[in-house]
Write the structure tokens for this entry.
Amino acid sequence: MDKKKLRVAITHGDTNGVGYELIFKTFAEDAMFDICTPVVYGSAKVAAYHRKMLGIAGNCHIISSAEAVEEGRLNLVNCFDEEVKVELGRPTPESGQAALMALERAVADCRDGLVDVLVTAPICKAAIQSPDFAFSGHTEYLADRLEATVPPLMILCNSTMHVALATAHLPLSAVPAAITPELLDGKIRQLYEALRRDFRLSAPRIAVLGLNPHNGDDGLMGSEEKDVIAPAIARLADEGIPCFGPFPADGFFGSGAYTRFDAVLAMYHDQGLAPFKALAMEDGVNVTAGLPVVRTSPDHGTAYDIAGHGTASPASMRAAIYAAIDIWRNRAAYDEENSHPLEHLYHERRSESSRPKSTPQEGEA
């Protein structure tokens, strides 16, 4: 298992963005071929256009099927032969359709076992919409196409933190109603399992953020913390899952409180992603937990504003590939170790005194 060189499927993303630039720069380093066999899903014609426009030397190994992959080369599965007009820096129906065709082919090969893990370059969610893609993003599409048995969990991570989202691609107005005891119970359990299986943390500690300013100020600005979030945390903590909170979100990251935990569960998209990207934009990775296939992606978007300039950093793409390989190996090792578990002879119950106190209410302004 440890010696297997994984086949990493990489979709080209939106063809008017920085996807190809990230791929070419990532595999300009020969050392990348020592750790994986890349299988890019895209267009030979579009790839050639981007390479020439960026002035990057080298060639792709163009193949019609992942079965023809060769180690030590940048393989490209030609997903379509149609001409695609590249208009760098702007979303178009053509760029969205090209992204979808590559994604569909990559997912099919994941299901068929022709590749081991999936790394997706950024798409434009508006451009890719069609009768075949009526989803709010990659996460929801993959859960549907890969027939996930549980709703997926979005986890943003780097070497120092893991930030997960209780709700992901929802309008802000819909978030309060979505924060239910059942949702939090499922997300905290899922995050705990992902930390143990995907990231090999034996006893991970999870911080849970509140929803309202200042944790609702004892009901003055909302009661979700008292009525829903705190009771959910208490129930799971009594079961032995080390989760703590709720913590007021405004100062949690700035004060460094996140460093005392292995993961943070935010209540909604920007509550978690805004501080994460401020602290970890360069090497952040988006991991989708809950899928039968390991999927990661860079933590940034199409970067239309710099597409074609040659200035895009491949750090997040490279980190996404590393993370996909690590998670695949971690899952394999974890599953092997737990294939014949010993019977539990006792249940360890954490005392309340062992739990950290909530951080002070931030900014009573």
Q: What stands out?
A: The mean pLDDT is 91.
